């Protein structure tokens, strides 16, 4: 007759390098001889997306560890049994995440290796998470510049967008102050300037890349941001980082990289294409490492 098994963790979220404790619960409906009760812990990165009819795919293991919970082959009578387990997570693991095109997952798999019977198995996913503490991050000022020369029959100078931040380290729900300057040396009028904050992931496999945006603010159009030819204007602005922005660390994750950025757009009249700028940010937790758990 079939039995069953289940995995119970001491808690659901762990830091890289932390000790994981839990129990395997086993139920036997009849007398049974068991070679071993094995539990396997593993982590992996998986990315996948379509390019035309081709699927770009990569699966990479992060670690795999197996442990036997019985000292020797054991005969069980019908009943309920509990076996504790403990193992050390490797350090420097990426945080658990699942988004469009990619995921990082961790799980435990238990197997009751029976003699002359169908084995009982079960799986349970657990979460690994870590992030930087804002108080320990080293911030620095940033100046990002983008230039574009509008298409013209005559000689024209460039439109230059400059974004200055006094600090590049922030936490979710904080305001990000910055100065945006547009110097228009062209003969084309700048119609509007817009900004938003974005968080997402880039994926790369065999020199093929794609990107997905997980969180972004509503695009903010700067009021009265027309810049006429041969003119220069600047604005003191600020945007709030969404409170639900993911800030988990992603080390040892070669195929999946996280980013946070301010994205700016200078809107030009037809037939010119708008110009864009990306200003990188670094995000961490405003709470101390101990109070964040």
From TrEMBL:
UniProt-listed GO biological process terms: protein transport
UniProt KW Iron-sulfur keyword: no
GO cellular component terms given for this protein: cytoplasm
Annotated ranges, domain Arrestin C-terminal-like: 155-288
SMART domains the UniProt entry points to: Arrestin_C
SUPFAM superfamilies linked: E set domains
Highest rank taxon of the organism: Eukaryota
Family matches, as Pfam families: Arrestin_C, Arrestin_N
Keywords (A to Z) from UniProt: Sensory transduction
Family: Belongs to the arrestin family.
Descriptive protein name: Arrestin C-terminal-like domain-containing protein
Species name: Photinus pyralis
